[in-house]
Amino acid sequence: MVKPAGLLGLVALCLAVSIVTSITTLFCYDHWYAQKVVAVDIKGYIEAQRENYLAGKMSDDDLRKSFDRLEAVVTAIPKNRVVIMGDAVVRNAETIKP
Prior knowledge:
Blueprint lengths: L3 H30 L2 E5 L1 H13 L5 H16 L5 E5 L8 E3 L2
Parallel strand pairs: 1-2, 1-3
Helix pairs in contact: 2-3
């Protein structure tokens, strides 16, 4: 026959394992699988680069490098992120600035 203290300890252990497993599962799901919406302000970035180029603050090579950096930022966004244009966001979305 199981002692009450042993039964209480077993229940506490099962509860602790269950809570830790649930928290770990939720964290992993949210981090790697859940879709999240992010916005990239491409229009604002291109406009700023255009103004700098026309003002003579950038050379042709610098302009090419800035667009390569924009492409690198966009391609580095994880696959579980839904990317929309930054000017379409009203609020409550993570905005990525290149």
